[in-house]
Specification:
Strand order of the largest sheet: 1-2
Order of helices and strands: HHHHEEHHHHHH
CATH architecture: Alpha/alpha barrel
Distance between the termini: 26 Å
Low-confidence stretches: 146-166
CATH class: Mainly Alpha
CATH topology: Mitochondrial carrier fold
Helix content: 55-70%
CATH superfamily: Mitochondrial carrier domain
Number of helices: 10
Mean pLDDT: 78
Number of strands: 2
Shape: globular
Largest sheet: 2 strands, parallel
Number of domains: 1
Radius of gyration: 23 Å
């Protein structure tokens, strides 16, 4: 089994576990990002308070809306990313060794090369998996709101809301989200938000650049210490992943908000301030009507969710890579011993 495939499988496994643990936070964060209430006097709910509101009015299952396509998307996304990351990384390492033979560099992959490797991997990942995340965003932002009509009262319902009447409507599932996206914009609707998402490959690029740099320094520190035989611990990997993701999230969060706005259901009637024709239109309208704070809606929730998810992902991935390699080594030894002499 190739090293790229091992890393791809381990990345997919780590991504699924991280997703299962942090998904309710991700759902709440997506709703915070796509909140377009322009009335500044409205009190903003905290993360925990908003989670309780969702459970109270829509049921706990709404915190896991879109979980199935999200898990598929996470497995595919992490698998694709780590697979191509390792392929590009191997090529960068070969190039670095070739340069060393010519007297240039020390033979190791530098920061710039790590950044390019992560960016290329991210672009491939985005182009292949964007449709899955459009569907996930639709399912996360779909709301079920109970409305009771009083005598003589006319109900005003937002387009994205489902009214719970005496007859319970059918559940909003993956097929509903797919039909909705296709009905709005056809085939290319599944690539909504792809531009800011492509720009956002800088997030994992920055993340992996920071991670690889800190990991290299930590390994050198371990090599110089008396306890170098212990190697890098799972806790240290967890902390490195957290720090790397925190730095990347702070820089790229506005792009994440714009992507979520574009992928959520568009309000095509009524207030045109809430309808975005594209990436540039979204930026202009958000700056004009909401100001720069609008680009950081739900950031505290995202920091908690993304840092926790990245930490779990890195920790589980490293453990899975080591476990798979150990199993393959044992199988190889067993095969050699079992061969007749």
């Amino acid at each position: 089994m190739s090293d790229a495939l091992i890393n791809g499988l381990a990345g997919a496994g780590g991504g699924i576990i991280a997703q299962l643990i942090t998904y309710p936070l991700q759902t709440v964060n997506t709703r915070q990002q796509t909140e377009r209430d322009l009335k500044k006097e409205k009190r903003k709910l905290g993360t925990i308070e908003q989670m309780c509101q969702v459970v109270k009015h829509e049921g706990w299952e709404r915190l896991y809306g879109g979980l199935t396509p999200s898990l598929v998307g996470t497995a595919a996304s992490q698998g694709v990313y780590y697979y191509f990351y390792q392929i590009f990384r191997n090529k960068a390492e070969v190039a670095a060794l070739e340069q060393r033979k010519r007297g240039v560099g020390d033979g190791s992959v530098g920061m710039l090369s790590s950044l390019i490797v992560a960016a290329l991997s991210g672009c491939v990942n985005v182009l292949l998996t964007n449709p899955m995340w459009v569907v996930v965003t639709r399912m996360q932002t779909h709301r079920k709101v109970a409305n009771k009509k009083q005598p003589g009262q006319t109900l005003s319902i937002a387009p994205e809301e489902t009214v719970l009447s005496a007859i319970e409507p059918p559940p909003y599932g993956t097929s509903n989200a797919i039909q909705e996206v296709y009905g709005e914009a056809g085939f290319w609707g599944f690539w909504r938000g792809v531009l800011p998402t492509l720009i956002m490959v800088s997030n994992p690029s920055i993340q992996f650049m920071l991670y690889e740099t800190m990991l290299k320094k930590l390994k050198r520190r371990h090599a110089l210490s008396k306890n170098s035989s212990n190697g890098i611990t799972a806790l240290e990997i967890f902390l490195l992943g957290a720090l790397a993701k925190l730095g990347a999230t702070l820089v790229t969060y506005p792009l994440l908000v714009v992507k979520a706005r574009l992928q959520a259901r568009q309000v095509t009637t009524g207030d045109k301030r809430q309808h975005y024709k594209g990436t540039l239109d979204a930026f202009i309208k958000m700056i004009h009507y909401e100001g720069f704070p609008g680009f950081y809606k739900g950031m505290s929730t995202k920091i908690v969710q993304s840092v926790l998810a990245a930490s779990v992902l890195f920790m589980v991935k490293e453990e899975l890579v080591n476990g798979i390699r150990m199993l393959l080594t044992k199988d190889a030894i067993t095969t050699v011993k079992s061969k007749p002499r």
